[in-house]
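User: Just a sanity check before I run the rest of the batch. Below are the structure tokens for the first item. I only need the designed sequence back.
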């Protein structure tokens, strides 16, 4: 428990800086409920802010049912997401509310290279944004997790986390964005783990910086 408190204490000065800068903050909960040996229920909530907290950029709700092709390393999932965005109108302090409904399919495969846990995620999305035409997007996610104080990531383990994710559209601007993330996490037990990290989003018209605070729960 003391180690979890250390993680949150490290977060406070970062949030104080973010409150007065362009550094955004994402609060993320990711849950997985085991239904049986093959099926699982995935659910997540992401509360994304332009600053530390209180200036909402996006609320994302996502859920889905996954199926294990093998016991641990290969999983397919069919899911749905609802995304509410509050986008600033250029050169004003006003916001435009935008709602999106999203269906997605994904495949996750995992492997180990020595102590490093590697995950590949391939996701295909069908997006309905307000009254616009259907948009299609492909995402490829690669993550590396490495234990810092144990030989493997097990109970009471600190670990380093790195990931990169690229987004590709089917029309108009092909390159959507790229997300690069570095973080440190603590696995409390087989049920819960926590991460604090920095993410940079490379966009067509610039880039954005975010601090991510993530809670994972498996039950």
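Assistant: Here's the designed sequence for the first item:
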């Amino acid at each position: 428990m003391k180690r979890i408190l250390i993680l949150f204490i490290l977060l406070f000065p970062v949030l104080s800086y973010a409150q007065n800068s362009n550094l955004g903050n994402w609060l993320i909960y990711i849950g997985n409920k085991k239904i049986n040996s093959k099926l699982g229920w995935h659910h997540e909530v992401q509360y994304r802010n332009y600053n530390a907290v209180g200036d909402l950029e996006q609320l994302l709700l996502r859920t889905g049912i996954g199926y294990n092709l093998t016991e641990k390393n290969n999983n397919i999932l069919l899911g749905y997401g609802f995304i509410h965005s509050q986008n600033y109108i250029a050169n004003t302090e006003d916001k435009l509310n935008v709602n999106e409904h999203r269906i997605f399919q994904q495949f996750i495969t995992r492997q180990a290279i020595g102590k490093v846990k590697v995950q590949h995620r391939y996701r295909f999305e069908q997006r309905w944004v307000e009254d616009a035409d259907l948009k299609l997007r492909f995402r490829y996610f690669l993550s590396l997790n490495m234990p810092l104080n144990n030989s493997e990531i097990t109970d009471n383990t600190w670990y380093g986390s790195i990931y990169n994710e690229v987004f590709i559209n089917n029309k108009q601007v092909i390159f959507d964005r790229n997300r690069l993330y570095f973080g440190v996490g603590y696995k409390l037990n087989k049920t819960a783990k926590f991460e604090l990290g920095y993410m940079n989003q490379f966009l067509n018209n610039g880039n954005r910086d975010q601090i991510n605070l993530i809670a994972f729960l498996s039950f």
